[in-house]
Specification:
single chain; mainly alpha; globular
């Protein structure tokens, strides 16, 4: 599958830095807010609330962005809609969102915020592994070095006293990792299927 590069003007460094900083702040608050929410709500109820609330927030943004020139141009350039494409979105919605959020919330119930942040933060590693397995990407020396540095830094920052096999958070860590890996595998498989179904 080939992805065309944008012909528009690239954003400046200030915009990129501000956007990256905003995403990091929102991403970090997500773990803390979910952990606080688990004090008052059962894990499954909180997971349902998060998914429904996210959909309610995203829908107005989708309607607004679809009218912007940049998104309208992308929509025109997209491949024609074919029936199997709806099945791909259904598959991605169930495994990539519902299962991911259930595992994240239930896992966070049994583990710490720092452990969950490390596990979910290694999402790009899982993505690269699955992308290589499904022949969507090739491992290069730079990618391997970058991912290794990211894993070391992520683990060093997030895990204070280490992880023991007898730690009570092992169950939560395993559930959280399952959700993160399922969502990344879902994304890679959807790309494989989309490439095979595109006329």
């Amino acid at each position: 599958m080939r992805i065309e590069t944008s012909s528009g003007r690239a954003p400046g460094r200030t915009v990129l830095a501000a956007s990256t900083g905003l995403v990091i702040i929102i991403w970090a608050i997500n773990f803390i807010a979910a952990k606080i929410g688990l004090r008052s709500l059962p894990a499954m109820a909180l997971a349902s609330f998060r998914v429904v609330l996210a959909g309610a927030v995203m829908l107005p943004f989708y309607l607004w962005c679809s009218r912007l020139p940049a998104f309208a141009e992308a929509a025109r350039a997209a491949a024609p809609v074919y029936p199997a494409r709806h099945l791909i979105f259904l598959y991605m919605g169930f495994f990539g969102v519902t299962i991911n959020q259930v595992c994240f919330t239930v896992g966070l119930r049994f583990t710490s915020v720092s452990h969950a942040a490390v596990i979910v933060g290694m999402g790009p590693i899982y993505t690269l592994i699955f992308a290589v397995l499904f022949k969507l990407e090739r491992v290069t020396r730079r990618k391997a070095m970058g991912m290794t540095i990211a894993v070391i830094g992520n683990c060093r920052t997030g895990i204070g006293n280490g992880v023991s096999a007898h730690s009570p958070s092992v169950l939560g860590d395993a559930i959280t990792m399952t959700g993160s890996m399922v969502s990344r595998c879902t994304l890679c498989l959807a790309n494989v299927w989309r490439g095979a179904m595109t006329p």
